[in-house]
Design brief:
Elements lengths: L1 E6 L2 E6 L3 H31 L5 H5 L3 E4 L8 E6 L2 E7 L2 H9 L11 H4 L7 E5 L22 E5 L4 E4 L4 E3 L11 E3 L4 E4 L1
Antiparallel strand pairs: 1-2, 3-11, 4-5, 5-6, 7-8, 8-9, 10-11
């Protein structure tokens, strides 16, 4: 709103803050903040979506195995998320020896029951990656060295694992990792 006053031949215009001035300023502020918000979201969406796993990784995010064909005392290698996976069916003697070991005396104390599923205590599923520096231990294939404790042996730096995949000797700090898995039937396992 503008007022005009006249004094001795000069016209002076005085502008006062009316409702129109405040409304325009508020609109400009809201428009600027909105434009910045839209620009920020438009920038973040591609950045966040590029961090999502690709289709080939999602396809390998779970593995289904039939453990019914594995004989007691036998182990097989599979692949899970581009890493080796060891599936071992323990004999009654191996289960007995693993259960007889005092878990509190181990470097990474775990019982066999904590490493297997209830009702399937003879099926051990672990990642085939040594927890020291990531080498692949031996012992899953026929004729491979199984180490001093009859489980797995890492040839890179000499880590020995027992039949339950627990570290018993060598530089590895922890047991072989047990991935998330569940039995979908008596013989079929879904890993991941």
């Amino acid at each position: 709103m503008a007022e005009t006053t006249s004094t001795a031949g000069t016209d002076t215009t005085v502008v006062t803050d009316g409702e129109d001035g405040v409304r325009r300023r508020d609109f400009i502020n809201i428009a600027a903040v909105s434009a910045a918000g839209v620009g920020g979201v438009a920038t973040l969406i591609p950045l966040v979506s590029q961090m999502s796993p690709s289709a080939d990784v999602l396809a390998e995010s779970s593995t289904e195995l039939d453990v019914g064909a594995i004989e007691p005392g036998q182990a097989v290698k599979a692949v899970f998320r581009k890493q080796p996976l060891f599936v071992r069916r323990l004999t009654a003697k191996e289960v007995e020896e693993a259960n007889a070991t005092d878990a509190s005396s181990l470097r990474d104390p775990q019982t066999l029951a904590e490493r297997t599923k209830e009702g399937h205590g003879d099926v051990l599923i672990t990642m085939g990656v040594c927890t020291h520096l990531g080498c692949v231990p031996l012992g899953a294939a026929e004729g491979e060295i199984k180490g001093e404790f009859g489980g797995y042996f890492c040839p890179c730096h000499g880590s020995h694992y027992d039949t339950a995949g627990r570290i018993r000797k060598g530089p590895a700090p922890t047991n072989l990792e047990v991935p998330e898995y569940e039995f979908t039937s008596d013989t079929v396992v879904q890993v991941g």
